[in-house]
């Protein structure tokens, strides 16, 4: 039986492209459907949340998720990754380095687990997710273009550093084009700059996002409502002032 995005609580953004806003941290997960493949953008904050995302994707696509793009290495975006068994996992260049995927500052999965618990995730769920994490198999240096079948190709671009040292964006060409920004862009609150942020590079990372999507794209923040290019430019300018970055 065919289901719609809306029936599953997802927001349809374009043909074969949608996203949902997850409870707890208002984190976005995205999905891009192809004829023979499906790409999930980020994996949720726990194994249970990842499993729910994967089940929704199966119902929408008619098959399992074949590709998983992790926009950056924070628990609310990666802790569900093990639920996507068999998927090709992508991250920005350097994300597969020693400990880099698993914690702010590259301190290992234990630090990532501790951060999750400090932010309110159940301690057992945090331990299970941290223990189950597998490293990124495909580091994106520059760009790569996975083929999801039926002419559906997506562009994965290493646009950071900014929010972290390893920020990956996902462009889905079309009318409109859709750009999944990770936490380089946030709408529901001020962008968060933790110990692994690279403030000096953040405004330039947003310039790269704008170059990737153009003026007419839909920009999907890591947290909050979908925005346009004007919002991204305004946030870029505000971050430049906030961090004292000359332009």
Automatic annotation (TrEMBL):
Residues 26-223 form the Metallo-beta-lactamase domain. SUPFAM superfamilies: Metallo-hydrolase/oxidoreductase. InterPro entries: Metallo-B-lactamas, NDM-1-like, RibonucZ/Hydroxyglut_hydro. This is MBL fold metallo-hydrolase. It comes from Streptomyces salinarius.
